[in-house]
Amino acid sequence: MSEAVGENMIVGLDIGTSKVVAIVGDINPDGSLDIVGIGSHRSRGLKKGTVVNIESTVESIQRAIEEAEL
């Protein structure tokens, strides 16, 4: 998925203080959605819902997305 995301793909992110969750879906021609991957990773770089270290936060997001791609 990293190489090319189709125009019918959608990604949802929940970035929380304790974990980051990524969900990847494929939109079908009839408008329905097929979930093709879900990933989560321990959240780092956030404190009480506020980003305190952007690099750590980005890394947590990337790892959750990578897990969803498996």
UniProtKB/TrEMBL annotation:
Gene3D superfamilies: 3.30.420.40. Residues 10-69 form the SHS2 domain. This is Cell division protein FtsA. Coiled coil: none annotated. Keywords: Cell cycle, Cell division. It comes from the Bacteria. One of its GO terms (cellular component) is cell division site. InterPro entries: ATPase_NBD (IPR043129), FtsA/MreB (IPR050696), SHS2_FtsA (IPR003494). It comes from OM182 bacterium. One of its GO terms (biological process) is cell division.
